[in-house]
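Progress report, Aim 2. The chain analyzed during this reporting quarter is listed below.
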Amino acid sequence: MAEIQTQGVHHITFVGSNREEIIAFYSGVLGMPLVLDQPNLDVPEEEHLYFDPGDGRLITFFVRPSRTLDPAPNPQGIGNLHHLAFNVSRAVYTQVAKRLNERGIHNTGPRISCRTARLKRNTASLASRSGINSSSNSATCASAVARG
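Predicted C-alpha cells for the chain:
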C-alpha cells in the first residue's frame, strides 16, 4: 500500500456547548477571531463555528443553543482529546493567564517541559469551560535551549 503524503491539518472540530459560550472563550479570552459561522452540513440544528488560532489552520466547533457548559473533565478513553496546545509569546501567555484568572478558570501556571532533548517550552495548561483542556506554550530563551 502506498504512503499517503498529507500537507498538514486543515482543521480539527470539537463538539462544543453553545454559540455564546464558545465565542466568549475562544474569541473573548483567547483572542482568536471567529472567521466563519455556518450550519453544520450534517446536522442542520447545529452551527459550525470556525476560529483562526493564528497559524493558517482552523479550530472549529459544532454548537447547539440547547447545550450548556459541562465542567466535567474529558474522559481519558481511546480516541478522546487529551489536550490542545497553543504556541504563544510570554507576553500573550501573561495576558491570557490574567483573563483566565479573572474568570475563575483553572490555570496551572508556567511549567518547563521538554518536547525533545533540544527543544524546551514554557507550558501552562488551562481547562476551558467547554470541556477541552488547552495549553498555552511560549518558547524559552535561546540560552536555555543551548544549555539543555
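Strands lie at 11-15, 34-39, 47-51, 58-63, 84-87, 111-114, 120-127, 133-139. Helices lie at 19-29, 90-102, 142-147. These observations will guide the mutagenesis work planned for the next reporting period.
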